[in-house]
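Most newcomers find our protein records easier to grasp once they have seen one. Read left to right, the backbone structure tokens trace the chain's path through space. Nothing more is needed to start thinking about how sequence determines fold. An example says more than a description, so a record of this kind follows:
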Amino acid sequence: MADLLGIATSGLGAIQQALSTAGHNIANVNTEGYSRQVADFSTLPAQRIGNSFLGSGVEVGAVRRAYDSFVVDELRTRSSKLGQATSFESLSSSLDSLVGDSDNGLSTTLEGFFNAIQGVASDPSSLSARQILLSDAEILTDRFTQLNNNLLSFERDTNNRITSAVGEINGLADNLAELNADIVLALGGGAVPNDLLDQRDALLMQLSEKVGIISLEQTDGAVNVFVGKGQPLVVGGTSQNLVVVDSPVYPGRLEVGVAQPGGATQIITNQISGGELQGVLDFRTRVLDPAMSKLGRLAVGMTELVNAQHQLGIDLNGQLGGDFFSPISSPVISAASNTGAATVSFTIDNVSDLEASDYLLVFDGAQWGLTRTADGAFSSGAGPFALDGITVNIAGGAPVAGDTYLIRPVHGAAGSFGLELASPEQFAAAAPVVSSLSLGNSGSAEISDVQVSSTTGLPLAGDITLTYNAAIPGYDVVGGPGGTIAFNPTTESGGKTFTFAASGGLSFTLSGIPSNGDVITLSANTGAPGDNRNALFLGAMQSQALLDGSSATFGESYSGMVGGVGVATRQGKANLQAEDSLMDSAVAARERVSGVNLEQEAAELVRLQQAYQAAAQLVAITDTLFQTLLNATAR
């Protein structure tokens, strides 16, 4: 009877454990990250009686999680990708809304500025038209400043997000280390801490949302977690926190690092992959930096080109034009770790060839290497380096291996875009040289397209007279370069262009059929308030392809910046939709393996209830048999 009672009571105990497990599943149906638990029954060791073995009952060998490591790893991967796509799309969409808004953008303001120049060209002596031009120029400079400040606010936002993400990563790493210690302790005592394992999986899932991770389970049950290219974040019961430090090269930029022995920090920003953190870093690298550089290139381009043309004109006071916009100076930034004595500088040689990129100049101990950060293009040597419309010069003392310099010809330059012109009278609408035909000329000689290309030799020291000499045939030149210039009316009456380089690059076109002795005079323009030739040149710049390798106008250059942000945003949205769908599939796959199904659990309860009732009935039968035996042997 004892054996039969033991079998019955073992069944009651095992089934009760299974009922508790099912109840635990039902209670945690809404617990995020909970894995359904299953009670595994196993027979107790059989007893040998004679030549046979009789069963001795049942026990719950283990309560295990319904778990598939491959499914969970895929879920973490998808969680990491989704976190990355979400943060990237959020930031890029916000920036796209800003630069794409006509009320905040530059397109309308640029058009208004050039319309104001055309207004002065239509009436160059009008002070009111000139005042409107100055007003629209101030609006333009304010808009550049506003846009640059908005981009800087995005840069601060990325820094804040990096700091916040690193803080959350460190907190999760600390919690994981504590859970590792608890799990190792429990497993060492022979228990299987299913709920603790679920909690650890939930923390790993949260961590993967923040940064891409690699997790490796150890033989003692602990999970080691790595980020980047194998940087340990959690090892057993110890966590290695990430740190946020100021970039040693890029001012105002935060980098992610790992503290090293001795107080040094290893920067691992470029090794981060996946999660919200990479999404923020990708936005900074792929969207924000190019936008700031393209806006800066437009500011530098307008400053250099408009100033250069404005300086070739004459204002209402008869003076050569000065700078219209304030000159922009971009310094070379020396890394804080530099110990050498080299001096690095750069000059802008051709603004049309400027790239929207930074450049990193690094000395490797033997030679210099210059990297264009936008695409990684590399060149090396002793310097100077001439590329992309700039020349990088290296002077001073000897460099030391590892010395690094950041060259930013255009990045952030929009913040320095300002108006230099102080009064309406200073706008140089007129050209510095005027031409005239002598009243005594008897031929049909004409001069046209009189313009200058530099301020060298301006204003003209005196008149330049061209007297036609049929014997040459051509013109005797008095003043300026002197000498003679060949002009044959028979073959060249349709027009021939000449240039006097030393006189401001003065160029003009002669045409017609002059008579011997006909005189043409080129003079300094000192009093021509109705002259609008330089204003026309300035106004024509609106439709000229002067930037991006002489392939884009000012407006098209700005549209290219807006379009670049828009393309990145559309790609981000498409990627987010794809990752969201993949995440749903990964969640569904986990739910099929580990999720709690209430209908399934209800059916299990009914089955276990019937089994429990049967075991209880066996106990009752055992009691009846025992009582019968006692009655039969009673004295």
